[in-house]
What we know:
Elements: E1 6-11, E2 16-17, E3 23-24, H1 31-40, E4 45-51, E5 68-73, H2 76-87, E6 93-96, E7 103-116, E8 125-131, E9 144-150, H3 154-160, E10 167-174, H4 179-193, E11 197-202, E12 212-217, E13 220-225, H5 226-242
Parallel strand pairs: 1-4, 1-6, 4-5, 6-10, 10-11
Antiparallel strand pairs: 2-3, 7-8, 7-9, 11-12, 12-13
Helix pairs in contact: 1-5
Amino acid sequence: MTHLPQVIVTAGGASEPIDAVRSWGNPFTGRTGMAIADAVRAFADVTLLLARSATPVYKASDHLPGKLTIRSFTTSAELADQLKELIHARPAAVFMTAAVSDYRPVRVVKIVDEQPADGIHPNRYRWTVEEVGGSKIKSDYEQIAILGMRNPKIVDLLRQEWGYDGLIYKFKLEAGVTEQELIAIASASRLASRAQVMVANTLDMVDDKTGGAWILDDAGCRRVARAQLAGELADDLRRRLAGAPQK
């Protein structure tokens, strides 16, 4: 029996609980990651770490050679825990398409009083606050504030903490920058994470019809239409696994 390469794809948006009924989240559907999982299954077994918000809408393709295993996550911490476990099996590649949360809520307060901090800095305020956490934060406060603590960057844990030495496909979204600025930011980010491939776009590039993404690697960068992105990345992985020259 031929053993197929093992590949991990993360997809969908993480959600961080504020209380038992509210959460911080993002609008990303996981469609890109799901399309990559299907494309890669033409030659590899795929474990898809899929956000629970995206799970009900995913319809996996049938009759593909590669086996598909789906595992669900909600928070960024859950995603990190599952990824750390799976990395021990040394998969051939990891596609980090999931939109993880940069911050997680750690405290909710109501604002009792707000005053300017001084006469010099117009954007600085002095707040008097009262903590109002609980299983369900009341809805009758005039103003509340949520204190967020930065989450670890999961993609950087792959090399730095978990010793993963396989292929990393990192994904980056920026807003309010030009495409040339995006390329510069993405190039530096790829090197910082020691990823073989970076896939980068802006919010303006997300549109299905006119959008696309930049693919950056050691060979340079190229712009790919969104409709061709999953197939292009699957072909890139196939070439790397075969030891063929990259485009």
